[in-house]
Fold this sequence. Notes:
Elements: E1 3-5, E2 10-13, E3 21-31, E4 38-49, E5 56-63, E6 66-73, E7 81-91, E8 96-100, E9 103-124, E10 133-147, E11 156-157, E12 162-175, E13 185-197, E14 201-205, E15 209-211, E16 214-227, E17 234-245, E18 253-255, E19 277-292, E20 299-312, E21 322-333, E22 339-353, E23 356-369, E24 387-389
Parallel strand pairs: 1-4
Antiparallel strand pairs: 2-24, 3-4, 3-23, 4-5, 5-6, 6-7, 7-9, 8-9, 9-10, 10-12, 11-14, 12-13, 13-16, 14-15, 16-17, 17-19, 18-19, 19-20, 20-21, 21-22, 22-23
Amino acid sequence: MASAVILTALNAVGQVDPDKRELVQFGFSQAVEGASPVAAYGYYYLNEPNFLKTNLTLRVALAPVYLDTELGFVGLLGPNTDLGAGLAGGGYADNYYEFRDGKYFPEESFTGYGAEGSVSVYHLFNPGKLIPLFGVFHLKEHYSTYQGNDELSPGFVLPHAHSTIDWRAGVRFGGREPLLHPDLAMELSAWYEGQYRTDSGPYGLDGDRILEANSELYWARALLIYTLPKSQQSIDINLLGGGSWHADRFSAYRLGGDLPLASEFPLTIPGYFYQEISARDFVSFTTQYTVPLDASHSWSLSPIGAIAAVEYVPGLGQPGAVNSGVGLGLGYRSRSGVWQVMASYGYGFEARRIEGSGGQSLGILCQINLGARHPGGPTHLDRFIGFLPNHL
């Protein structure tokens, strides 16, 4: 069975983050039935304001084989406009896993390595307001190279090593901190992304698939997380929708699984393989309700439900446009707020498996917040920070 370490790094913030953060994040998900890659992420995250100088902020996300960094220059382009310069690279971040009709094809999957440089501009439109409104422009060049594994079909031709110029623009009202379960968050945002590649063209088995020369994506999100002060019951609602032009296997929206910090816009569906579904258009709705089980609010139970309507990438479809799943998580949170752990079970209703529809998965999530400063207290609205991913 193949394995993968997944890190969709916290590549650019909705502003240069003014808060000191030191986190360790870990997530693991595995299907109960059917062969699939082992989906996991693990990284150390540091955000260090006043790095060397008062107007510099260093952000580092370090995984076992991947490093993502950004140096933020606060107010460099004006009192409300920050500039960020980033470097990233390492192994496995560009891996590709082929899924069709609920089946994993290791003979058509391969390993990817990448390196990139980026420049970002973050502008605050409403200084002094309780909920910030940011404009974001992000430009990067990403170089990808691929390597076959032992299971790769002898006749399978890998995509050419290539460079991708990627630019993204968006507006975000509010945001979400990079925590496993924030106590409070809200967001309304809209985004556009253009991808332009060198060395595009056919690859695969007798050229049966293509790396597009350019792809365009657009999407929007509405998110709300609210925790009742006394009971500490919490609701998490996430509505996402998007479309594309010329989406291919690398630029498609990937849905499935339950790894909430593998990307900034997680398209989770419990019970499915991680990123099992490749869509060029989608609408997704996810909700989770967390209920404390003890007086100290350390233990909790979290039912979750998700449903998505998709238009599949050609060649990667399956019967039915609707995919849905439910899950249940048992969580523990230390009274200091430093430790959070959740074990989960998920069932995907329309997941295609050998014996028909219905997929099951098990997972575990862990967060160590080394910089926890307000244990048990909700995050204030004026500290909302939005994050962008390397990939959706």
